[in-house]
Amino acid sequence: MSRDARWKALLELLVEQGRLDVEEAAAALDVSAATIRRDLDQLAEQQMLVRTRGGAVVHGVSYELPLRYKTSRRAAEKQAISAAVAALISPGEAVGFTGGTTTTEVARALAARPDLTTGSPALTIVTNALNIANELAIRPQFKIVVTGGVARAQSYELIGPLADGVLGQISLDVAVLGVNAFDVVHGAAAHDEDEAAINRLLCERAGRVVVAADSTKLAARAFARICPTDQVDTLVTDAAAPDATVAAFEEAGVTVIRA
């Protein structure tokens, strides 16, 4: 197994379990404990995790890994979701994007649409996600508006009260919302309260709200609520979403698209 493959596998295990034991990780990956210790030391140097005696734990209180190491998780589902979300957006609209791997894929899908290669602007993009702004800034047909705030390393999102000044003065046609959890009763939520606050502002400024979430995030709860279910117009998820869960969202007035 290559080093990159081991690192990916270790980070996936860490996301699932919250902590790693050197001996257990070595057995799971069929490599020596010395190799795992070296890998964990190198990942800790890059602030991907925190080393502990005998293993490692996730980095940061929000229990998230930096975006570049989360992108490959459920990649096929996210690409299908992103294509379906992109199809809901019309030329000339003002679109708000929260951060996250799925919303990043939506931005890429919009950049690839042939009907959005020209326009003045073809779309207006408002986002607090530095990586999304960076990817779309090279598209001259897109007008990019970035909120103020302090960068959060785990998700590349700008958070804090500095964003209020921008978001309080704009109107959006649609907000594309990435979430950590979406439950019919408890609504859309994120792990971090500052992230949730900015996402909530984007939703409040939008004419319609689209949640882009793979099926593992449905019927789940997270610490900080973004918005109640009745503020969401459309949920775009993957084909693995259970029928009962989909039916519950539809009964609550949410249009559900299974990509």
Largest sheet: 7 strands, parallel
Q: Can you write the helix and strand succession as a string?
A: HEHHEEHHEHEHEEEHEEEHEEEHE
Computed structural class: alpha/beta
Distance between the termini: 33 Å
- Spatial ordering of strands, largest sheet: 6-5-4-9-12-14-15
The amount of beta strand, in percent, is: 15-25%
Residue-averaged pLDDT, rounded? 90
Q: Based on DSSP secondary structure assignment, what is the total number of beta strands?
A: 15
Count of helical regions? 10
**Unreliable sequence segments:** none
Helix percent reads 25-40%
Rg over C-alpha atoms, rounded to the nearest angstrom? 19 Å
From the spread of the alpha carbons, the general shape counts as globular
